[in-house]
Every structure is written in C-alpha cells, then in structure tokens.
Write a structure and sequence with these properties.
The protein is of the alpha/beta class and about 375 residues long. The strands form three sheets. The protein has a six-stranded mixed beta sheet with strand order 2-12-11-1-10-9, with helices on both faces. A hairpin with a 3-residue loop joins strand 11 and strand 12.
Length: about 375
C-alpha cells in the first residue's frame, strides 16, 4: 500500500524541529581592553570564533554607561530574563535577588524586597578603599555558616532577616529600602569605592548596618584562622541586586544555561541547566541563553595570559562545536553577546551566513570596541 504523503507544511515542521532554533552565547569580558587587543589577538588561535564573528547576519556594537552601577552583560541578562525594563540607559537594572533565591531552593515572599548579600573583604589603601575579587576569597561553607550564624540574629532584630544561599551568596530582606542604589560587585571590583558605595535615602542605614556587622566579625575565630592560612579576612559585606518578589517567575523566551559560573549567576538557571555543554544545550532543542563565566576573573585581575587560556578553552569547548552545529543544521541561529566594562558586541550568524566564503575570517571585531 502506498504511504499517504505528508503535507509539505507538516514535513517542513518536522524537519525544523530536528534542530535547535536559536542559541545566545553571552560572554562577559570576551572583549579585551582596547590598548591590549591587538597584541592579545596576535597570539590567540581561534578560527571558529573568527568565522562566527566574520561571517555574520547582523553586527552591532553598543556603548554602555556603567554609571548605572552594573556591567553590560548584567544589564543585558537582566532584560533578557524579564527582570529589567531595558538593557541599556537609565532603566537598566540588576534586579536578580528574588530570582536567584529560587535557584537556591528558597521561597521569596511575594511583595517583599530582597537584596543579594556577599561576605566580602574591603582593602584599605593609602588613598582609597577597594573591594577584593569575591571569587578569590575561597570562603568555605563552614566559615560562611559561622559568620552567618553570628550575624543573622542582628538582622532579625532590625527586621531585615537573612537567608543563606551558599558560602558566597546570602540574601537580605529590606522592604523599606526601595530607594537604595547599589552597584554590582563585578562593577565595583578593582575600582575606587568612593563612587560605588550605596546611595539613596537609606545609604546611611546601610553604612550603619555594615559597621555593626564589621564589629561582629572583627577578630572572629573564622577570620583569625583565615589570616593564619594567608587568606583575606571577611571584614564586610556587599549588597546589591534588589528586587521585589512576585508570585510568578518573570517570563523569559529562552531557557538559561550557565557554564563555569558559580554562585548567584548559576542560581538563575535551573539545576539541570548548570554546567552546560554544547551537546546538552543542543539536545534540549529549545531556544537557549548560555552564560559561560570563565573570563570574568582573569579580566578583572588583568591576568591576560589566563584570559587567553580561558578564551582558547572556549574555542575548543563552545565555538568550534557550535560552528559545526550551524553547518550541519542542528542549530538554526547563533547569537554572540561579547562585552567588557563599557560596551557589548552583538552579532548573529547562521548556516547561510557561514557560507559567505568571500569574507575573510579574522578576530578584528574583538578590537573594534
């Protein structure tokens, strides 16, 4: 018996569903410092990335005003996840706290305002105060729990209770602090904190709270033991990411995956989508946003040798596999969002764009910023 032919529209839909439609790869600090870019790119061997950046459908460089107290990739991601009304300009926000709480299995109360709170080290230099890179503190769960346990009763007493996420990520409820403007830790790290400390009507209350906690932690056994091991004392906290909790999760058109991004950033993704790989993302067959965080620490510390190593690893782990997926039709469109402190480069490519053989494959777009 002859088989009934499948209508063209249905056959096309079946073929379309065999592959993934769109993947967005967000790469914080993938754009090098302008003055170093030419030298760095001379030694970078990344032909897949060069092809993805050169043979494009669209390309746009957008400057960013980080006086908004966050970084370009943070603003872009907050908007993509439905947590901020705009990815740039005065409306850009980093309202991640309530969403990150859910990622840790915590249940934020609808209508309550929560902040992300990180145990931190403030370094006092002769002319300024700076925030140490949080990823380098190496704070263990036991140490963090001990510091949390001594601080939590005070926060309860003032009506701003704490919740524990992991060693480096806590949460504070402060419903009345809607006017407090805080900087993200990655925006403030390596900067003179005189222009990055909290501002607004409750800034004085925030400073008073900081002073109380500093006294609680001063000469705490955890800090004494850390200093004996040559580690930085936990002498402060960093507050940011305020958001109002809603009864329902914000809408997002794509599923978020993370890779090499511990802490609050990983918590924004569902547990099954943390430590993602190209194969796992493509197998999901749904539009996705992937945020590898491996370049952030090296760029913040200006360790450009390490930055090159991490970008070389991304070439092997992500760029080459995704270029192959474009060519064989498993991926319909790839969008790359690459950033540094002051801009992001937004490019899209596809199977058709990758066939533009007349376009020379270069990394020059990485230094056009």
């Amino acid at each position: 018996m002859a088989k009934t032919p499948v209508p063209f529209s249905r056959a096309a839909a079946i073929a379309y569903n065999l592959g993934m439609n769109q993947l967005t790869l967000v790469l914080p600090f993938a754009l090098p410092n302008a003055e170093l870019a030419a030298d760095l790119l001379k030694v970078l061997q990344a032909p897949a990335l060069a092809a993805l950046l050169s043979r494009t459908s669209t390309c746009n460089l957008e400057t960013f005003d980080n006086t908004n107290r966050l970084l370009p990739h943070e603003a872009w991601l907050a908007h993509a996840l439905g947590l901020s009304p705009a990815p740039n300009g005065a409306a850009a926000q980093a309202a991640f706290a309530a969403q990150a709480m859910r990622g840790y299995g915590l249940v934020p109360e609808p209508g309550a305002r929560y902040f992300l709170l990180h145990p931190a080290h403030l370094a006092i230099a002769r002319s300024h105060i700076s925030l140490e890179e949080l990823r380098q503190l190496k704070l263990s769960e036991a140490e963090s729990r001990a510091l949390f346990d001594i601080a939590a009763p005070y926060f309860d007493e003032i009506g701003q209770p704490l919740a524990y996420g992991d060693a480096g990520t806590w949460f504070m409820r402060a419903d009345g602090w809607s006017d407090l403007q805080c900087a993200t830790p990655d925006a403030a790290t390596t900067q003179d904190l005189s222009v990055w400390m909290p501002e607004g009507g409750h800034a004085r209350a925030a400073r008073r709270l900081q002073n109380e906690v500093q006294m609680l932690w001063h000469e705490h056994p955890v800090n004494a033991a850390r200093e004996e091991r040559g580690l930085k004392a936990i002498n402060a906290f960093w507050l940011w990411g305020a958001s109002l909790a809603t009864a329902q999760h914000p809408a997002c058109a794509a599923r978020l995956h993370t890779a090499d991004a511990p802490g609050w950033l990983a918590a924004l993704a569902e547990p099954a989508r943390r430590d993602a790989s190209p194969s796992s993302v493509l197998a999901d067959q749904a539009d996705a946003i992937v945020v590898p965080g491996s370049l952030i620490e090296a760029a913040q510390a200006q360790e450009w040798g390490m930055w090159l190593q991490q970008l070389q690893a991304l070439e092997t782990d992500w760029f080459a596999p995704l270029q192959a997926a474009l060519k064989d039709g498993r991926l319909g469109q790839l969008r790359l969002v690459l950033s540094h402190r002051d801009a992001w480069l937004d490019v899209t490519t596809s199977k058709h764009a990758q066939r533009k053989f007349w376009r020379a494959m270069t990394l020059n777009k990485l230094k056009a910023s």
